[in-house]
Specification:
- The chain is α+β, with helices and mostly antiparallel strands and 62 residues long.
- The protein has one domain.
- The protein contains one helix and two strands.
- The protein has a two-stranded antiparallel ribbon.
- The protein is rod-shaped.
- The protein binds zinc ion.
- Zinc ion binds next to loops.
């Protein structure tokens, strides 16, 4: 891991081509590597799926 004195807050190194990519970029502009998203976009997914399944089940029962 390199130490860059000019390193701005919120950059990360592309594991594919080792270029510095801004943290708000989801994809490396050089090689197109997709960074895994631990973010909030998926946190609601399973509750939403569970709610939809529950609604479907209720609609099927009634
Ligand atoms: Zn890259």
């Amino acid at each position: 891991m390199r130490i860059n004195p000019d390193k701005k807050f919120g950059t990360r190194e592309c594991p594919s081509c080792a270029v510095e990519v801004e943290a708000n970029h989801n994809r490396c502009p050089v090689c197109g590597y997709d960074f895994p998203q631990p973010g909030p976009t998926r946190k609601w997914l399973w509750p939403a799926v569970a709610a939809l399944l529950l609604l479907a089940l209720l609609a099927w029962l009634v």
